[in-house]
Design goal:
By secondary structure, the chain is an alpha+beta fold. It is 22% helix and 38% strand.
Length: 329
C-alpha cells in the first residue's frame, strides 16, 4: 500500500497528516491503530506524536473531519495542535480563510490568522466543549468537580483542577522550583498506568504564571509522554489561570511551552467556556511511503522537505531565551 503524507508540527508537537479526501484509500479501525504504532515509532525514519487522518465529513457545514491516533495506537478525542495543521491543510485545499472541521465531540471553527511570528503560518482553532464534570474525564472521586483541590493519593503539596476540553486534563499551578523536580513525572506515570483514579488515563500539566498575560505549560500527554506542547492542555491551562484570576477572560494569553509559544483567548458565555488556540501550523516534509501492515514494515519512496522549519526555529529560539530568563535564571 502506498500512502502520501505530510509531516508537520504545532509548537513542536509533531504529526503525520494523511489525506483521505483527495486520495483513494481509507482504513479500518485496526489499520489506523497499526499505522500509528508503526509510523510514529521514533526509531524509524518517520516518527511522530501521532497521525492526523483528514477525512470527508457527513456534516453539512464541515469541510472535513479530523481523527487523531496517538503513537501508542489509541485515539484522542481532540488535539489542538493537530487541528491547526488540519485547519491549514483544509483551508489550502478548498482555498478558504476559515472553515469548520468535524472532530469526535464537536464541529469546530478554524481560521487563518496574521502571523504569530514573521513568516510563520498561523491558524486559530476553537477548543470546545469544556466540562468540569468528573464523569467526563473520567475521574473516580466521590464528588462532581475538582477545582483547586488536593488529591491525597497523588500529592499533599499540590492542588489540582480537573477538566475535559474534551480530552481529559489534570492541571496544577506550580512554582518554578517545582518544575525542576520529578513530581510531575511520578504523578503522570501513576495516573497513566493501572490506577484507581483515572481508568482511561489523563493529560497532566504543570503551569507557571510568569506575569498577567503570560504563562508556561509543561505537559505529560496521555498516550505520548512528555511532549513539546499539547494544544488542549495549553487551552485548559489558560482557562484555569482565568478562573484563578491570574489572567483575564477575552484577553490574549501568551502561552510558552518547550516547543515554542502559542496564544489563547478564553471566553465565558452564560456560564459556559470556549477557548481560541492560536499558533503555528508548520510543514516539515512531504513523503510517499510503501507500507506493509502484515509484516509491520514500511519504506520511504520519496521525501521532499519544506523550508518552513528554519523560520519556525527563530520563534523557538526567542521563546527559549525568554523561558531561560524567566524560569531558569
Amino acid at each position: 500500500m502506498q500512502i502520501n503524507l505530510i509531516k508537520g508540527h504545532g509548537s513542536g508537537n509533531d504529526f503525520l497528516l494523511i489525506d483521505e479526501i483527495s486520495n483513494p484509500y481509507s482504513f479500518s479501525e485496526e489499520e489506523r491503530a497499526k499505522l500509528a504504532v508503526l509510523l510514529c515509532n521514533r526509531n524509524t525514519e518517520l516518527g511522530a506524536d501521532g497521525i492526523l487522518f483528514v477525512m470527508k465529513s457527513e456534516h453539512k457545514n464541515a469541510k472535513g473531519r479530523m481523527r487523531v491516533f496517538n503513537a501508542d495506537g489509541s485515539e484522542a478525542s481532540m488535539c489542538g495542535n493537530g487541528l491547526r495543521l488540519v485547519a491549514r491543510y483544509i483551508s489550502e485545499m478548498f482555498h478558504l480563510n476559515e472553515a469548520v472541521v468535524e472532530t469526535m465531540r464537536a464541529d469546530l471553527k478554524v481560521s487563518e490568522q496574521p502571523d504569530l511570528y514573521p513568516e510563520v503560518a498561523t491558524y486559530q482553532v476553537q477548543i470546545s466543549p469544556v466540562s468540569f464534570q468528573l464523569t467526563d474525564l473520567p475521574l473516580l472521586l466521590n464528588k462532581e468537580t475538582l477545582i483547586n483541590e488536593q488529591i491525597e493519593a497523588l500529592s499533599n503539596q499540590l492542588s489540582f483542577t480537573a477538566l475535559a476540553v474534551p480530552n481529559p486534563h489534570l492541571i496544577a499551578l506550580v512554582e518554578a522550583d517545582q518544575l525542576q523536580t520529578n513530581i510531575q513525572k511520578q504523578i503522570s506515570e501513576k495516573v497513566n498506568g493501572p490506577n484507581e483514579l483515572f481508568p482511561d488515563g489523563v493529560n497532566v500539566s504543570f503551569v507557571k504564571s510568569i506575569n498577567q498575560g503570560t504563562i508556561y505549560v509543561n505537559t505529560f500527554e496521555r498516550g505520548v509522554g512528555f511532549t513539546n506542547a499539547c494544544g488542549t492542555a495549553m487551552s485548559a491551562s489558560s482557562l484555569v489561570t482565568c478562573l484563578n484570576e491570574l489572567n483575564k477572560f477575552d484577553s490574549v494569553i501568551n502561552v510558552y511551552n518547550n516547543g515554542g509559544k502559542v496564544q489563547c483567548v478564553v471566553h465565558k458565555i452564560d456560564g459556559s467556556f470556549s477557548i481560541d488556540l492560536i499558533g503555528n501550523a508548520t510543514y516539515l516534509y512531504k513523503a510517499d511511503i510503501d507500507v506493509d501492515l502484515d509484516h509491520e514494515s514500511f519504506s520511504i519512496a520519496s521525501k521532499n522537505e519544506f523550508p518552513e522549519q528554519q523560520i519556525y526555529e527563530k520563534l523557538q529560539a526567542d521563546a527559549q531565551k525568554f523561558l531561560n530568563a524567566e524560569l531558569r535564571g
